[in-house]
Amino acid sequence: MISLQNVSKTFEVGKKKVEALKDVSVEINKGEIFGVIGFSGAGKSTLIRCVNLLERPTSGKVIIDGTDILTLNKKDLQKVRQKIGMIFQGYNLLKTATVYQNIAIPLRLEGVPAAEIRERVKKYLEIVGLADKAKSYPGELSGGQRQRVAIARALAHEPEVLLSDEATSALDPTTTEQILELLLTINKELGITIFLITHELDVIQRICDRVAVMEQGRIVEQGKVVDVFTKPEHPRTKSFVRNKDVFHVPEAIKQQLEKSGKLVALTFLGESSKDPFLATIAKKFDILPSIIAGGIDQLKDQSVGNLLVHLKGTEPEIQKAISYLQAEEVLVEEVSNQ
Amino acid sequence: MSTFLNEWGDTIWQGFIDTLKMTSISLIISVIIGLPLALLLVLTRKGGEAENRIVNAILNTVINIIRSIPFIILLFFILPFTKLVAQTTIGVQGVIVPLVVFTAPYIARLIESALLEVDRGVVEAYQSMGISTSKIIWYVIVREARASIVLGLTIATIGLIGATAMAGLVGAGGLGDIAYQYGHLRFQPDVMYTTIIILIIMVQAIQSIGNLLARKLRKN
Lengths: 338, 220
Hints:
heterodimer, A: alpha/beta, Rossmann fold, Alpha-Beta Plaits, 2 domains, six-stranded mixed sheet, four-stranded antiparallel sheet, 12 helices, 14 strands, 36% helix, B: mainly alpha, MetI-like fold, 9 helices
């Protein structure tokens, strides 16, 4: 439903030209949650702002429901924007208005009838769980509550798409979790497509269906979250995915272990995590597996198990064990190569 | 006390009314001129919603020039202009024009700084909702800046009261004029102190009302 085609954006900072986006193409399907991850300065913020033309691309097309919105006049663009909700890291609420007014004022400015405004504010405040805060001012609310108000404000326009510009980046882990839960609910129950950008892998992992990894204005890798997560190809993606404690083995221990065998990282997906693979390979082959570290990551609709295992034995036996595991759809990666 | 009131009561009352008149009329006209100027300054500045370097530069220069001229000089300097606009150069009517010329650019600056305090993120949020720039100006920028604008106008009002004291030079009267004419030149300290005390009370009252109103509008 949203298609960015060969989008480039060049900023002129003084006399210098900064290319924030270089020939970026992304396709966001109806009903999915699509995430873009990257470090700050990667261009993801510029990218999301190109979707509703808060930033106009220097070249390329921004197609929404079949229309290239770059060709629209002001009035028509405003109409399109009303169907695209957006939430921000800084919430961006009116400080001098109550929660109720914060949701009602934009609706009033769009000419929604008063009775309907009352209904919608009530409905969406309930959805975000702030029905009792209608008369509060943003200054009296916590960060998470303010973001809920911002979400309610966006939803009250009954949009088809919600853009999230680092919406959880200023929140603590527990609150982040709650906001992500809310975004999932919105996506599932109201059928709203969500396009989000973040620098937090957790956000992608928890709620996204597909992900694109950005670096220096380019998308370097994209695909289903499970695939990108378990089989990262680009070094940048690896640095995101592998930036986990489970893979950080002190060098001294690593060298010690490698003398008597091999260190391997095993990744189990969904169903395969239930089988006792380590016991099986210990019986089948002449090796002694021992677990160094491990953990389970919960993706949107499946879990991914990570194990760092030391396989003690001769090289041929280890290779046989690895082949066996691979045949059982366990991802095996030799840690010593990294 | 009663003899003092009998002798000076009417004069001082008249002065009070004149000061009030000059201040309030000039203030209202200055806001009517100053607010659009402030909006224009904010909108045409670099990165503004209607960026225009030429308009912005001209506006800035004119405002700075007028603000550089002391009121007493301005008062005489623009006499022909005053005559043209107000049909007269004396009395309360004649002093409104210079007071406005003096105050409007000042108010424009004060409101400009209040408007610039408004979080650009909120403006962006409203743009993302497809709301037109004109509505954003009024319902977001001006609305969010109200408290700071009120405080700015309080400062401007007090400045205006000060300027009206010089209006006596063109026969407009007012408390400042009474303090100068009777109190200072004819050396009648009781008249001077009375008018000064009234001026102090006026300034205090205006500042208090301004603070109160700003606090009510700020809400956080």
